[in-house]
Amino acid sequence: MEHSLKTLWYQPLFSSLLNNRIESAAIVGFGVVHLGMNLAGLPFWTCPVLAATGVPCPGCGLTRATMQLVHGDILASLKTHAFAPVFLVALFIMAAVLILPGSQSARLINFVNHLETRNGITAWGFTLLMLYWAVRLMA
User: Where in the sequence is the domain holding 25, given as residue range(s)?
Assistant: First the structure.
């Protein structure tokens, strides 16, 4: 049991996604359109979890926080959603993998894969996001 949990913890999830160009392009495209429409003042997507249950999901506020970050209001962004910088970096990495030439794209994917398999950064990030969400729900 302990071995399988350790294997799961260090599984390269984000780099696997980066290796799939179609999924990466879809996520980057949706993210850019969503942020762009919101930056233009046109609401594009509301949280389906919040709409259906009245309970905010772990990502609720992330669009607003990312827009604040893009506008340079770092403090407001972090107050709105602490994971906005992480989201923006992930979006940039995904876009870079799509734009960079093959060898450089492969090096970036290998670097991310190395981080995931060496220190479980994706599992840590997900765990911290869930803890952050729980704290926000209690506040």
Answer: 16-138
